[in-house]
Structures are given as C-alpha cells and as structure tokens.
Amino acid sequence: MSRPPVPHGLDDQGCIEREGSLAHVPPVFAPVVTAARGRLLDAFGPRLHSAYLYGSVPRGTARVGRSDLDLLVALREEPGEADREAVRALGGALDKEFAQIDGVGTLLYSCDRLLSELERYDLGWFLACLCTPLLGDDLAAHLPRYRPDSLLARETNGDLARWLPRWRERIAAAEDTEEARRPLVRFMSRHLVRTGFTLVMPRWKGWTSDLHEMAEVFAAYYPERAGQLRTAAEYGYEPVGDLDILRSYVDDLGPWLATEYARVHGVKAPRPGD
Fold first, then answer.
1. Alpha-carbon distance 62 to 33, whole Å?
2. Is the predicted pLDDT of residue 272 greater than 90, yes or no?
3. Is the Cα dihedral 140, 146, 151, 154 positive or negative?
4. Parallel/antiparallel/unpaired status of strands 69-75 and 104-110
C-alpha cells in the first residue's frame, strides 16, 4: 500500500478549516467578482440574504479562460422558477462578457433550506467550509464546526447510487459529439473523485479540494482502483468527450463506488423528490 499525502486542511481542534477568501481571488478575476456582486443585488434586492463564491476563484487556483465562476445564493424565501431564470440569465451574461471565465454555475436556495437539520451535514457544511462570503450576513455563524468523520462522508456523497440512473439518462440524451460530451465527462469525473476521496476521508483525517490530491489519498486505501480515480482527476481538469469514459463511469467505477460507500458509511438521508 502506498503512503497517502500528509493530512491537512484542519484547525488545531481537528475541524475543517474554511477554504477560500476574497483576498485569494486572482486580480484578473476581480472584475468578474465585482460584476457578479452588483448584478446579484440588482436581480434580488432585499430578497437576497447573502451570496458566496466557491471553487477555484476564491481558492486562488482559477485558470484564465478555463475555470468557471461558482456562486451560491441564499434567498430569504424559497426560490421560484423566475428566480432560477434570473440566475441563468445572470450567469449567461457574465460568461458572455468576461473571457476570463468558462461558464457560471449558481446554486440557489432559501436560508431555511441551508440551515435545516436535514442539510446540516451537506449544504450546511458546504456553505460553512467551502464557500467564501461575498454579500450579506454569513450563514456560517449559525452552523456548527465540522470534522472529517463518517457522518459527514455519508451526508455529502452517500447518494451516488441514486445519481447513476440520472447520469445514464443524461448520457443517452446528449448529442453524439465530443463537444456535447465533454461537460458530462468533467462533471462526472469530479463527482466520482470527490466521492472516492470522502469514502476514505475519515481514515485520512484531513481535507483537500484538489482533485489530484483526492485521488492520491484514495489510492493509498484502494490501490486496485487507483488508476481509475487518477484518470478521473485528470479529466476533471482537462475533460475529453469520449463516450467510452462515460460508460465506464456508469457501468463500472460508479456502481462499485456506490456499493463500497454504502458498505462503509451507509446511505445519505433521502431528500424530498428523491
């Protein structure tokens, strides 16, 4: 068995440190962040409780022309279809205007949902540990500190088995072109690598958001699947539109990972609509 990287990403109490900061945003992305802040205020006004950045931009690792801008928006009430259309339009406008980014992804929830008991170890953890405050009062003040334990593993990624049928449908519905399949490869690669990492996270006793490091941590505990996760990490950053890769995800790596995850950590609590 290979030795995993030295655990890190925790504070002196063993809790996951919040990653990202507005101070880490590369200067080339600063105009995009400024524009996003202003347009969110224009779009939602007093209905907006708070907004956050997450991903490579606030971590300072974004690549010009390759990385997307990731936002989380918390409304004071449940979002409706008009709100979802508003964030789609906002994202499309930012993507068109700023060549620095390759797309905008926006998560939209109510404060009640983000602070609910059901989401305490999923969306709540995500906001408290992986999101950087951009606007409004930080909801993390109402959430606990989080440790890299089996409960967190189960509630973040213990639902892969429920995703796999939907992934098969998306693959079947996609246009038969490399360009159409490339975003699917990127999305599914990242999801599988993160799931593989959180499978072993409680044993490693640390946290990272780097896909390559996630794959190396996983490899130390499951060497027989190490090559697959390392390759998935590569495709998470540099995707290709290969149909065989997608099929291997939903027919081999995904089912194995879902089964092993359920065996080790159990299954994530179902959400409404599951």
1. 13
2. no
3. positive
4. parallel
SS3 100: coil
Backbone angles phi, psi at 113, to 5 degrees: -65, -45
- Identify the residue whose tokens are 């969110």: 40
Write the Ramachandran bin of 103: left for phi over 0, alpha for psi from -120 to 50, otherwise beta. left
Q: 121: which residues sit within 8 A by CB, 6+ positions away?
A: 146, 151, 152, 154, 155, 156
Q: What are phi and psi of 230, to 5 degrees?
A: -60, -40
Q: Please state, in angstroms and rounded to a whole number, the distance separating the CA atoms of residues 184 and 197.
A: 20
What is the 8-class DSSP label of residue 16? B
Task: Please answer whether residues 15 and 145 qualify as being in contact, where contact means their C-beta atoms are separated by less than 8 angstroms.
Answer: yes
How far from 222 is each of 1, 2, 4, 216, 252, CA to CA, in Å? Answer: 8, 10, 11, 10, 15
Residue 51 makes CB contacts below 8 A (sequence gap 6+) with 36, 37, 40, 71, 72, 73, 74, 134, 135, 136
Q: Which two tokens stand for residue 175?
A: 């246009």
Per-residue pLDDT reduced to its tens digit, 84-104: 999 999 999 999 999 999 999
| Alpha-carbon radius of gyration of the chain | 18
Distances (CA, A) of 164 to 42, 161, 188, 247, 263: 38, 6, 10, 11, 17
Q: Two tokens at 134?
A: 């951009």
**How far is CA 183 from each of CA 104, 111, 190, 235, rounded to the nearest angstrom?**
13, 30, 11, 10
Check if the beta carbon of residue 242 is closer than 8 Å to that of residue 185. Answer: yes
> What is the model's pTM?
0.94
Q: Using DSSP, state whether 144 is helix, strand or coil.
A: coil
